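Task: fold both queries, return tokens.
Query 1:
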Amino acid sequence: MRRIEAAVVGTGWCGGIRAEALARHPLVERLHIAETREERLREVAAATGAATATTRWRELLEIPGIEAVYVCATPEQTHYPMAKAFLESGRHVFLEKPIALTLEEADELVALARRQGVFFTIGYSQRFNPKYAYVKKTVAEGTLGEPVSVLISRHITRGLGNKISGRVKLSPAAMEATHDIDFVLWCLAPAKPVKVYAQEVKRVMAPKNGAADCNWIMITMDNGVVVTIGAGWILPPGYPNFSSTWIEFVGSEGALMVDDTHRDVTLMRMSQPGAVFPISTMPGESAGHVFAGPMAGETAAFVEDVVRGRAPLVKPEEALLAMEVYTAADLSIERGEPVALPIPRNPQAERLSLTLTEGVL
């Protein structure tokens, strides 16, 4: 089987995980990385043996051998221009969520990938979580009968919530519930969402950065199924980037409860009061010789898709639909009423203008 060259743009928390996974993958011949922080760039380059390590991401466009590019940069305003540049150059692109900041930008990226004949996918890593994959399998096989209702409650710690909400003005619906929206739509397909109603609470974060503490979203599907998704990011510290999720999937002939609250591994020490929950982040983390979590497997899958010419698990059209749902949730909060789907596009919508100067991601 042939080997390819891959690149990672932005090697922070998630990008670093992806870079290390790619460096270990037998189908990756050379790895190229871009990162604005020179100290972090040197750290990841040393850990991965990267063939290229640059602070200027556009330099990667000039390396003809690169076939697959992982766009993991922050802030999220960079996603659209970076993904567009790599798609236009004929590269297969893996893009961290969100797909874009506006539906018009997302439409453009999906259409561009289709015209270029390249793979384009979004980082919805929870599809690679075995517990979530089991839910999908159970629903697809009809084990629960006809789906009736779904409830998902997701919470992350305040430190991570402050970090995310402080760098981009996107809601918990757009940055956290988006994973669960994608997951539910994946499970319930071919059913489509037709109506969204949402509310928010602003108590803890609003005085600091104007962000909501949590969003609760109710989605009505065209087959009558009702979905309720809650996402918040103000949990007290428990473990760096701790994530807790609970899922209830109820059908006409059965019910499935999934505990993804990460309470199965508890660490207590004399030097640190209280308990912490290792191996509890959404992306996962290394545990010695193995990686515990979905992100490494998701990263490897895209390389294998490119080499085999196989369509990625997450289709860009599915990511676009998830974006419509969380956009509708934001609009519902703003208007105080349900929002019907699909959302009409505004051809005159102001495009995001972002000047990417030399050396800036």
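Query 1 returned. Query 2:
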Amino acid sequence: MPLVRHPLLSPAPGTQRELVSLHYGQPGGQKAYIQASLHADELPGMLVAHHLRRQLDALDAAGQITGEIILVPMANPIGLSQFVLHGHQGRFELTTGENFNRHYPDQIEAVAQAVEPHLTADAAANVALLRRALKDAVLASPVDTELQSLRRTLMGLSCDADIVLDLHCDAQALMHLYTETPCWPACEPLARFLRSRVALLAQDSGDSPFDEACSQVWWKWAARFGQRFPIPQACLSVTVELRGAADVTHELAEADARHIIDFLRWRGLIAGDKPALPDAVGDARPLAGSMPIKSPTAGVLTFLKDVGAEVKAGEVLAHVIDPITAQVTELTSPVDGLFFARDFVRFATAGMRIAKVAGREALRTGKLLGA
């Protein structure tokens, strides 16, 4: 199993960070790319990657890996080192304030113009051509900051993959997924294997997060070329929310890693008997129907409902208590839906998002992701 070190642009003399990728199998067939903890303070994915590495090592030794699998066990060395007053700051880069999971560069139009004279009626040949051109464009893109070099490195490893899994977590949450609507048919089996309670679907949610930067090139190229050239949705890219930030246990991580291996075997990247498709334990809903619950006032936050509850519009989910006036503010669900995520902070500030309920109707517009 080759281990490759990718130096990032040095931010200061005497300072050098690197990204490490583990490579299994051989190029030429299907390719899967899996990365953990792009938000560096979200640690369940790092432990899942540890168990994936053990399982992939054994499969590799047995000669069972028939595709190409790249595992990045820690996708954000910048954020991993950011501590302020003993608090880990792994979501935003401290220099720019930018979210590590936003603002991935767009090579769609440049690649389309470069390859258009060479596209044909052969869909598979078109996919191969576009993948080569996209990777060349990504690797040739200029960078002038350490953060930009991290984004370029991650995209260079992943942009030509058939399957991209970006392992994250919420604060306190059920297992759930984010993917683009055109990816849902290919994602639905993954949701079954991972026992996901809900998959949240959008088509371009805004600010170019990593998973969408990998998948949306295909539906955008298909729209651009229309009926002239067949362009399939050649990348399934999914943000996997591995429950909550404190769900860092060997039992959960080993099972999650095994379920990912089962999916890869089901997809044909690993030899052996194809596993049976598990029964679905959840469904897909529009990301525009995932409603944030905000606190209009500050105070001590206490929840009346646990994640996993099916709630009705108007049902009280939490109280915010002003310790000076003793005023109790009720926070209610705006829709019927699944109460799938909540914050672990127990003092709410005015305007703070404290929870999310996944409804079935698309009600929001504009940028659909949080900061």
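Both queries returned. Flag for query 2: The radius of gyration is 21 Å.
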